[in-house]
Specification:
Methane Monooxygenase Hydroxylase, Chain G, domain 1; disordered C terminus; mainly alpha; about 230 residues
Length: about 230
């Protein structure tokens, strides 16, 4: 394979991944809207999106593996292909999270809408923004933008912990709202996972561009600090 053909194949791989990214981001937005308005027709759209996302995941993985088999890519190209494979998996899981939320909406069809003391749309907006920024950092090969996504994860984790405390209290004190609170708890958990996948994507961008593995760096540094203080 000539270098020009190889570069064209890399560009095609990137384009396919961006198509999948758009579907995954749209699926999350639709799932949260379905939850907000209890609209099962939107859930149907999410289910169809998941099928398309799963199909693209298989196509992207195969294309990436074909490139690895047919060419001996230079270091940065090799890191790009490996990053695509990992980002591909995370985007598929974002689609899974959207499907999980829409499935919750289906179980709530016969339940009365409850005014629970949590802000799921705000949490969804933050998680979606993380996905969007991580993918923008991929498009622009911008490790600094990717780094900014990592710092946003703490906010989503904090919101998820707060929701867990609040909704557990609701389930314990207002039994008639327990089913709605449990479903809301599961929706929050799915959104927290979306944020985790966005973080993974950002880390993969940093690995691709800089060759630096930043996974678990914060926990490693915290462990070193604790060890040094003893």
């Amino acid at each position: 394979m000539t270098r020009i053909r190889f570069q064209r194949s890399l560009d095609d791989l990137k384009e396919k991944l961006l198509v999948m990214a758009g579907l995954a981001e749209q699926a999350i937005q639709r799932a949260v809207e379905a939850y907000r308005v209890r609209d099962l027709s939107i859930c149907d759209l999410v289910s169809r999106s998941e099928l398309a996302i799963n199909r693209l995941e298989r196509e992207i993985d195969q294309a990436a593996l074909d490139l690895l088999a047919m060419e001996q890519p230079m270091a940065i190209d090799l890191r790009f292909i490996l990053a695509v494979i990992k980002i591909n998996a995370d985007l598929e899981r974002v689609g899974d999270a959207a499907k999980s939320i829409s499935d919750r909406v289906r179980t709530m069809e016969s339940m009365a809408i409850a005014d629970l003391p949590i802000d799921i749309p705000r949490m969804a907006a933050l998680a979606s923004n993380m996905v969007r920024r991580s993918l923008q950092s991929f498009i622009e090969a911008d490790p600094e933008m990717a780094q900014s996504v990592l710092s946003m994860d703490d906010a989503v984790d904090s919101m998820n912990r707060s929701a867990h405390i609040t909704l557990t209290h609701v389930m314990g004190t207002e039994s008639h709202l327990a089913p709605q609170a449990l479903n809301a708890l599961m929706v929050c958990r799915s959104l927290e996972r979306v944020a985790d996948h966005a973080t993974n994507i950002a880390e993969d961008v940093i690995f691709w561009v800089k060759g630096a593995d930043v996974r678990h760096k914060a926990s490693v540094e915290a462990t070193k600090a604790a060890t040094n203080s003893n």
